[in-house]
Records
---
Amino acid sequence: MPANQPPREPGRTFTEVGRRAQIVAAAIETIAELGYTRTSFAQIAKRAGLSSTGLISYHFASKAELFEQAVLQIYGEITAFMTQRLEGHTTASAALRAYIEGNVEFSATHPVQMKALLDIFVNGGIDYDEPKERTAVSPLEQILRWGQESGEFRDFDVRVMATSVQRSVEGPNFLLAGDATLDLRAYARELVTLFERATRADT
């Protein structure tokens, strides 16, 4: 199977899987351009080059279901991106730096996805609760505990620190909405410096 071909889902043909992926991609692009509330099946069908909205309805029962798949698609891309960035680090300090820089880099290199995700979030299209928050910060908490166990990091509340880092790496998505010229490399450098000083054992 070609590397860029989506995996076949149980009960669906390769053609159906490909069509669903095409629709989800078009939905993400449309939301990023028009906004969550203004995006319709008609606009998504037009962007995807479909002859009618019925082709979308065949695959997705509602706009909510389609948007949920769009969110899952973006989360999947973030996970794959960050997994690659975090591989091979031998110290918690290096892993924390990679986590911060990787998240900011994803925002810089995937502006359409992040703009769509932000718009879905601020308009209540993402059911974000405490268990999902725990899942989001779990990899970061593992890095922080690793640093404390190895003696690299000082003693601090891991949950508080993980939440602080996570909210900070999400910051560019809100800032870019108002300032497209934001220097994300400088932003990442400042965050790395901030949290290296906040976590290191000699402070």
---
Amino acid sequence: MPAFIFLITVTIVGLGAVLAASATAFTVIKLVGAAYLIYVGIQFWRKARALANASSLDSAIGKLMRRDFVIAISNPKAIAVFTAFFPQFIDASQPAWSQLAAMGGVFLALEVVAVALYVVSGVVLGKMLKSERVFVHLNRLVGAVLIVSGGTMAVSRN
């Protein structure tokens, strides 16, 4: 969520407009983000067994949080979404900053709810699936999805 706070702030102050105006800047950020997703996917694949062990997961929470931040912050599409979405709901007769801040706050509140549901789902599934073998396969699946997502992002024209 800190990454989204930063991205919303950047969008509000105008980097979204710069990226929208500069195809080169967008492409560079997109490719860096895609490369990082592929890197993280490979790491998930290679370290699937270590990640499946609860003790190694508990000691790696800080690393996972940093990885989550870097993945979120390196996604230029979030800025593109905010840049495309927010202006549609701005009343030109009112101050834009307060409207953008309100929309950003609502987005962050919804993000908190989504993350909370994700965490609860993970806890419930974690209790249901105690097998290390299952977690190894899930970690490899996550790795594969990240690699495919990064590759798709790298070759997309948008």
---
Amino acid sequence: MRIGLYPGTFDPITLGHIDIIRRASALVDKLVIGVAINRDKGPLFALEERVAMIEAECAKLSEQTGTEIVAHPFENLLIDCARDVGAQIIVRGLRAVADFEYEFQMVGMNRALDSSVETVFLMAEARHQAIASKLVKEIARLGGDVSKFVTPLVESELRRQLAK
């Protein structure tokens, strides 16, 4: 069984993430969405809320693609998370050249730690390349329309969270 790991904070999951998940599903039998517990980033959503949104959105994708998709919180090194879930492939989404420079460094470090795990880069579709969770949260905070960037479920959760 080929297992892939797609890591991120997913705060919140966007249409760009969903695009990468859909396309990564064609490459593996099981796709683990590694939900990073990154206290330094100060996420808007609690871990449990991020996992719930991912599970809700990925249930539909799993049915459509026939690929098992599961959410897996992690707080250790990415390469250790890959080992924990049995992943042979780490999937990373790229939006721009700036992403590549950082990702290139990460691949080198991960390969030094465990050369048996490959990293695969997927470019988001052109219509999703500008989407970043950070920008989506900022637009929502300022009362803007985020419906072009997230699903209706996530939009509703953003509005609920920001109303607190």
---
Amino acid sequence: MPRQVYRFERPSRFVAGTVGQPGERTFFLQASDDDGRVVSVALEKSQVQVLAERMDELLDEIATRPGTAVPATADVDDLEPLTAPVDEEFRVAAMGLAWDGEAQAVVVEAVAAGDEPVDEEAILSDADEGPDALRVIITPGAARSFVARARRVVAAGRPSCPLCSLPLDPTGHVCPRQNGYRR
């Protein structure tokens, strides 16, 4: 089946965000451009967390290379909600992250889940066949802003139990370290 690649080169906005209340949130990556095109893909909280960590590590490593300008902190603090309506194009199965030295930009690709496991060669490829993908090419400054917001979004969830580290509901939770007693 032909592959649909939603491509954004230097989008006006690329963010991680959520819809719903803590404990019931759905996480999204959302890219938008100046023409009003908006693409949202759903993913897991852990995927947002890993993407932010890896992107930060990539930027730190690139910053050590001569002739490469990478800001140490985020330029813009994006606190706006996701652009509505948030229509899920697909659920993310795998992600790729790369540095384009020629363009001096970070490349992020989120690949859709399918009937079969995602082939690693399908990630960041220009093949005509394969799973749908969201490919975003952003500046190092935009990447730092993405990392800052993604970390904030992940941390905005439910607080952790000090004993077992599982999330606490507003009514507490049954803590395995307390032999099933409510905490």
